[in-house]
């Protein structure tokens, strides 16, 4: 049996491998990816079967030029051999329910309109919003978790979520003097495993 839960901290490698298998090598070239780069997701769900990662869905904070705030869904992926068994639908319902419970007003995505329409998504809600790159307009969809959350929403979407920490965030501030640079390098080398 499979279960849906919050993504575990150590699942990044398995998640990326699953996304590569399910979505292919061009997945990182998509316009939606520009809104996710360097950010932390607001919500990350995983589907597991016998302890193995078989599905993933993430939500990201975005905002438009007019101050409209929303979540961007994606990617949603299920391992190819288990597609069609309702795992994606359970991930969707779980994500939408958690987002609504947390007080978010709307969710946006780029995807297959007939598939996402059953969850309440429509291109009619995104008519005045723009993405930072090419997109087929009929695939740019919105869903209001709170009535009227996208009413009047317009402008270019931009990332709004927390920045993902980088390896450089853990290094000391750049020293002003050469003496400090040598001292800092010595301290860093002592911290590295032998």
Task: Explain this structure.
This protein has 194 residues and is of the alpha+beta class. The protein has one domain (2-162): 3-Layer(aba) Sandwich (Aminopeptidase), CATH 3.40.630.30. The protein has 5 helices and 10 strands; from the N terminus they run E-H-H-E-E-E-E-H-E-H-E-E-E-E-H. It has helices at 12-23, 31-36, 87-101, 113-117, 178-191, and strands at residues 2-6, 43-49, 52-63, 69-73, 77-78, 106-110, 129-130, 140-144, 155-156, 158-159. The strands form 2 sheets. Strands 1, 2, 3, 4, 5, 6, 8 and 10 form an 8-stranded mixed sheet that branches. A two-stranded parallel ribbon has the order 7-9. The radius of gyration is 20 Å and the shape is globular. The protein starts with a strand and ends with a helix. The model is unreliable at 171-191 (pLDDT under 50).
Which key phrases capture this entry?
194 residues, alpha+beta, Aminopeptidase, eight-stranded mixed beta sheet, two-stranded parallel sheet, globular
Shape: globular
The share of residues in helices is: 25-40%
Cα-atom radius of gyration: 20 Å
Give the oligomeric state of the chains in this entry, treating copies of one chain as homo and distinct chains as hetero. single chain
What's a quick, concise take on this entry?
The chain is 27% helix and 24% strand.
Question: Which secondary structure elements does this structure contain, and how are they paired or packed?
Answer:
Blueprint (H helix, E strand, L loop, with lengths): L1 E5 L5 H12 L7 H6 L6 E7 L2 E12 L5 E5 L3 E2 L8 H15 L4 E5 L2 H5 L11 E2 L9 E5 L10 E2 L1 E2 L18 H14 L3
Parallel strand pairs: 4-6, 7-9
Antiparallel strand pairs: 1-2, 2-3, 3-4, 3-5, 3-10, 6-8
């Amino acid at each position: 049996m499979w279960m849906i839960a919050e993504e575990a901290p150590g699942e990044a490698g398995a998640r990326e491998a699953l996304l590569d298998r399910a979505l292919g090598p061009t997945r990182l070239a998509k316009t939606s990816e520009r809104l996710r780069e360097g950010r932390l997701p607001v919500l990350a769900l995983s589907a597991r079967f016998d302890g193995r990662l078989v599905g993933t869905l993430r939500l990201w904070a975005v905002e438009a030029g007019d101050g409209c705030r929303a979540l961007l869904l994606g990617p949603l992926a299920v391992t190819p051999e288990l597609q069609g068994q309702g795992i994606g639908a359970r991930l969707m319902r779980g994500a939408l329910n958690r987002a609504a419970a947390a007080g978010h007003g709307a969710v946006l995505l780029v995807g297959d309109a007939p598939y996402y329409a059953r969850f309440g998504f429509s291109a009619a809600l995104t008519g005045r919003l723009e993405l930072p790159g090419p997109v087929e307009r009929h695939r740019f969809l919105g869903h209001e978790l709170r009535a009227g959350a996208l009413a009047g929403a317009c402008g270019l979407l931009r990332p709004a979520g927390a920045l993902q920490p980088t390896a450089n965030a853990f290094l000391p501030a750049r020293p002003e003097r050469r003496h400090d640079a040598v001292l800092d390098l010595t301290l860093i080398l002592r911290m590295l495993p032998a």
